[in-house]
Amino acid sequence: MTTAHLTVDAHFAVGPVRRALFGGFVEHLGRHVYDGIYEPGHPSADEEGFRADVVELVRELGVSTIRYPGGNFVSGFRWEDSVGPRQDRPRRLDLAWHSTETNEVGLHEFSSWLDKVGSELMLAVNLGTRGTQEALDLLEYANIPGGTALSERRVANGRTQPFGVKTWCLGNEMDGPWQLGHRSADDYGKLASQTAKAMRQLDPDVALVVCGSSSAHMPTFGEWERVVLAHAYDDVDYISCHAYYEEKNGDLGSFLASAVDMDRFIETVVATADHVKAVRGSGKTINISFDEWNVWYLSRFENVDRIEGIDNWPVAPRLLEDVYSVADAVVFGNLLISLIRHADRVTSASLAQLVNVIAPIMTEPGGPAWRQTTFYPFAITSRLAHGDALELKLDAPTYATAEYGQVPLVDAIATHDAEARRAAVFLVNRSQDEAVTVTVDVASLGDVRVLEAHTLSDEDHYAKNTLAEPERVSPQTNDSVTLEAGTLTILLPPISWTALSLGREGAESPSLR
Questions:
Q1: Is 173 labeled as catalytic in the residue annotation?
Q2: Active-site residue among 80, 134, 292, 452?
Q3: How confident is the model at residue 508 (pLDDT cuts 50, 70, 90)?
Q4: Which residues touch 122 (CB under 8 Å, ≥6 apart)?
Q5: What is the pTM of this model?
Q6: Are strands 2-7 and 436-441 parallel, antiparallel or unpaired?
Q7: Residue 292 among the catalytic residues
């Protein structure tokens, strides 16, 4: 029998788990906006054309902030196209995804949708084909109460109160040659610094995210962060990280260990940022906004989905509609474990994306909306993970991977909310063929009881939820859990993700927000 041991001690806090860690991302890409969140002809559509079934699922998902409108899309976006009377808005070619953007849904409409789902707006500005002046114009339109040309234009467009956007992204993936306006770290760092300084002159309270590397595997990774921060360190609050993972060439073992790569990515960026801090003699700490992360079968996009042709610019084509398996969901849940493990420095994150496009929620035009397998780890973790992330002591056997060497069969993180008298433990079993019995020492938490125990697994590791079988996979109550004398014992099936909620006398599990 394979066993592992975990010690949870409430005295060893890493840092608070901020709600912004459970952010999302909506880009004007494929069927994300049109036929996704917005479908006026759908039976569930409200008076604004938004699908009520999607609203309910996003609320269940528990998304805190939502980054918008891109992504690669933002580097060619003219924000002025997305405001004012719909009949006057221009149709534009979106070079990022070789599509046509109708601009039916713009800043005002999206903000209204955010009110419905209970999430906060996080805006990206175009530093690809545009620059500092356009960023200032959008900030004035969005955040100044009134009395200026652009703020009064917002009022005339039906929004008396400012949007009050707190967090702003200074462009997107500017290290990537695929990006409109791609430039060197030196050139981007100068532009980001200039734009950040100007935005703070207009609104000193904004939080600003500078572009880090779009992948830890970029040839400029590390040096990009160092050079950009050498220019912009004093002007920004966050540096971004982006990471996507997929199973390649049947190497399931390496794929299941993807969080090892995310851990290394985060720790390298932290070390680089702290190096710049030390060189500058600064008392300020730059944190990470991991504002794109997910499982994404990018190779399928390159080989199947890519749209080409001077006369082929469809509206809302089916792009990046990956259908996720149990194995994908286990990796996804493990990526969440990695983010929480670094809660002291990863203080904002955005799941990319939300609906139809590499998404936990899928829809069919005129038909149903349903939860993908990846929906469940996010929804349950965002609901249960409160208080402080804890530094754990884990003793587990290892296995060999082609990509990452020897890695533990089990990975885990725990959170503790002293005020609510609750804790949560999240675990994955990466073994493809062995169940693992894990004993968890929770004595430091006091006299607790098990409030909930969920496990996501299936004998078919590639089982998926589809239009034909939308509820094929869902978490099940884990009946193996026992708690005696401060020790939890739990059986983790092969390739599984598990969440436990624990509470002291009088505590109850967190409900949906």
A1: yes
A2: 292
A3: confident
A4: 23, 65, 66, 67, 68, 165, 166, 167, 168, 169, 291, 350
A5: 0.97
A6: parallel
A7: yes
